[in-house]
Specification:
The complex is a heterodimer of chains A (541) and B (124).
Chain A (H helix, E strand, L loop, with lengths): L30 H7 L5 H12 L4 H44 L4 H13 L8 E8 L4 E8 L4 H14 L3 H19 L1 H6 L1 E3 L6 H8 L3 E3 L10 H7 L4 E8 L2 E9 L9 H85 L7 H26 L6 E3 L1 H18 L3 E5 L7 E3 L1 H12 L11 E8 L3 E8 L6 H7 L14 H11 L4 E6 L3 E9 L7
Parallel strand pairs in A: 8-10
Antiparallel strand pairs in A: 1-2, 1-6, 2-3, 4-5, 5-6, 7-9, 10-11, 11-13, 12-13
Chain B lengths: L2 E5 L3 H13 L3 E5 L2 H8 L6 E5 L1 E2 L2 E2 H11 L5 E5 L15 E4 L5 H19 L1
Parallel strand pairs in B: 1-2, 1-3, 3-6, 6-7
Antiparallel strand pairs in B: 4-5
Classes of the chains: A alpha+beta (541), B alpha/beta (124).
Chain lengths: 541, 124
């Protein structure tokens, strides 16, 4: 037997061994390691072993048995190492997936991660994935999102892009959510729309799978007795996987995955991996959905809190109004009734006394003073009324017409001609109807002395930017701007009938409603009043 | 001659109304409370009622509602010490609304207007 073979030498050259490849040079100087790794499968070594048989060496069958067992165990170890490598990759992937899923409460982001994980080569490598979500309110399992190519050409393009970009799961999912979510949803709209099943349809394979809580591999779908033909036709594949998404016994949804393009078989290993993956996905989807609901509830609570605050403010205001109302009511009755009796009887006496009666002057004084006191009372009550405006949306054209109708007779007695130009398609204005009516009445009938021959008043209303512009031109009162400004200060004037408060009160009322009011006087042209009435609530604070 | 029912809790005001409205040619019956008003309405016919909105310890609006319900053919004019009740929807049931004043011209005009309207309606 020639023992001078490569397997027996301590050190060999590269050319001596046909099995040592580049990068394995360390084996050239290590006989034991070389024998274990290379010689057992080498033909030169086998030839040497054969020589033992030829020489009828009794050790030959023993060596041969050892060698077979060694090779078998080596193969088994290699298989286990490969298995462990795969599991390590899977665990790394699941770890990455878990991290991404746990760090998000955005439903679309979670779903993007889930579908990307199923279809990515680095993940489970399925061709397509459809996600269906349970709508408990409607009692339906409904198609929500899908991912994957619809044909071979698109598949080549997408997969090449993935290889070219070499992104990790998080980056892929993010890319999908930002750039492809809507387009993928639209792309699969026809299928997703039809993937709607009643949760009460206990015979449907999807609902049965949810009840079973385990993934199901469907094969020969077109002939399968439990698969509705429309589902098989809709998906267009013979084999697919159903993965229920269950969180704490609650049905969250379902993922349908298939290899529509490659037709690669779905293995039991795929099933097992996906089952492990299903739990964190279901949990993350439910958590994201709950978070969404929480956000909705939070905004409702915030809105309710805002309304409550408004209501509280309103209650405080109403309490103030009620107090002011009670006080004014008390004043009105305490003062007006005696005034009415005094003035009324004085008028009665005056009416029935002869012109020659010397006491008539006294009675006339009583009548005049009573009239003035009644005027003062009216204005003070109106002033207190103006403190708390009650606003709503009103038609300003209608309001002006009503005021003109109420004041028409008195104005015509004074020789006035009024002209109103109502605006077309005029917007509703947000004002206190009563107060604005009072203001317009006061502008038409106020204490400023009439001095011109032209007794005409023109009123016009037209839409402005976020407001209705109401303009009133009174050509009968010719005063300076300084004189007019004096009239606009409360209690600065005392007139025969009251306090001369009317115009000042208008200004106060409108200011209280944050309605811009301007009055410009021209000694020749008269006075022009402009009121900008808001058409929106938010125009006012 | 038209018959008027005047309801006001103030005796002097009832007297003033009665004197002034009699001078205008009306027959006037007065009442100080809702109960008295209801009593005087029993079995009697009135052409119009003048009602104070604030009676002592009771609301003229409630009496108004009762009158509208039971005597809907009889017009009612509400009188008040101040104008804000005019905008109270419950006061819209009344046929007229007058703010109390020592000058009763407004009230007299309102009575004449409503009675004329009623007469026109009857003649139709």
């Amino acid at each position: 037997m020639n023992l001078d073979c490569c397997w027996s030498r301590e050190v060999i050259e590269q050319a001596d061994c046909p099995n040592i490849q580049g990068g394995e040079e360390d084996l050239l100087a290590s006989k034991q390691q070389r024998n274990l790794e290379k010689c057992a499968d080498c033909s030169l070594f086998h030839r040497s072993l054969q020589q033992l048989y030829t020489e009828s060496n009794p050790l030959a069958p023993i060596f041969s048995g050892f060698l077979d067992e060694f090779r078998r165990q080596k193969s088994q170890i290699q298989s286990l190492v490969s298995f462990l490598d795969n599991k390590t990759l899977e665990i790394r992937f699941l770890h990455e997936l878990g991290y991404v899923l746990q760090s998000s409460v955005d439903l679309d982001e979670v779903l993007s991660v889930a579908l990307t994980a199923i279809t990515a080569g680095k993940g489970f490598g399925m061709n397509r994935a459809f996600l269906l979500l349970c709508d408990r309110d409607e009692g339906l399992l409904k198609g929500y999102l899908a991912l994957g190519p619809r044909n071979m050409e698109e598949a080549g393009h997408v997969w090449n892009e993935i290889v070219r970009n070499d992104m990790d799961l998080q980056a892929m999912a993010q890319n999908f959510r930002l750039n492809k979510l809507s387009s993928e949803r639209a792309k699969f709209h026809d299928i997703l729309e039809k993937l709607t099943i009643s949760l009460d349809d206990k015979e449907h394979i999807l609902i049965k799978t949810l009840e079973g809580k385990r993934p199901v591999k469907v094969e020969q779908a077109f002939q399968h007795p439990n698969v509705p033909s429309e589902l098989a036709t809709l998906l267009g594949v013979d084999t697919f996987l159903l993965m229920p998404l269950i969180s704490r016994s609650r049905w969250v949804g379902m993922i349908i995955a298939d290899n529509f393009i490659t037709h690669r078989a779905i293995t039991d290993e795929d099933m097992h991996s996906l089952e492990t993956f299903g739990f964190p996905v279901a949990f993350a989807v439910e958590r994201a959905a709950l978070y969404d609901k929480l956000q909705v509830e939070l905004s409702r609570v915030t809105e309710a809190g805002k309304k409550l605050k408004e209501q509280q403010e309103l209650i405080v205001r109403m309490e103030n109004m009620a107090l002011v109302g009670r006080i004014t009511s008390s004043i009105a009755h305490s003062v007006r009734n005696p005034l009415m009796v005094i003035g009324g009887f004085a008028r009665s006496m005056l009416k029935n006394s002869p012109e020659s009666d010397p006491k008539r002057t006294f009675i006339e004084s009583i009548v005049a003073e009573t009239r003035q006191l009644e005027g003062v009372l009216d204005e003070i009550l109106n002033y207190s009324d103006s403190l708390y405006p009650t606003r709503d949306f009103w038609d300003v054209n209608q309001l002006v017409k009503t005021v003109l109708r109420d004041t028409g007779e008195a104005l015509s007695l004074l020789g006035y001609v009024t002209d109103f130009e109502p605006g077309d398609d005029i917007k509703s204005v947000y004002i206190d109807f009563k107060q604005l009516s009072y203001c317009i009445r006061s502008v038409l009938q106020n204490d400023i002395a009439i001095s011109g021959d032209d007794r005409s008043i023109s009123i016009s209303a037209r839409n402005g930017d976020g407001c209705v512009l109401l303009a009133i031109e009174d050509r009968s009162r010719h005063i300076t701007q300084a004189q007019l400004d004096h009239f606009l200060v409360p209690f600065s004037e005392t007139r025969d009938l009251g306090t001369g408060l009317a115009l000042a009160l208008c200004k106060t009322m409108l200011e209280k409603q944050e309605v811009p009011f301007t009055a410009t006087a021209d000694e020749q042209a008269g006075i022009c009043y402009t009121i900008l009435l808001p058409t929106r609530k938010e125009e006012q604070s | 001659m038209s018959r008027l029912l005047v309801v006001d809790d103030e005796a002097n005001i009832r007297l003033l109304y009665a004197e002034e409205l009699k001078d205008e040619g009306y027959e006037v019956v007065t009442a100080a409370t809702s109960a008295e008003a209801v009593e005087k309405l029993q079995g009697a016919v009135f052409d119009l009622a003048v009602l104070d909105i604030k009676l002592k310890n009771e609301s003229g609006i409630e009496l108004l509602q009762k009158l509208v319900k039971e005597r809907h053919e009889m017009p009612v004019i509400l009188c008040s010490a101040f104008s804000c009740y005019k905008d109270d929807f419950s006061a819209w049931l009344a046929d007229g609304y007058v703010v109390k004043s020592s000058d009763l011209s407004d009230l007299k005009q309102e009575i004449a207007r409503i009675l004329a309207k009623k007469a026109a309606k009857v003649s139709k």
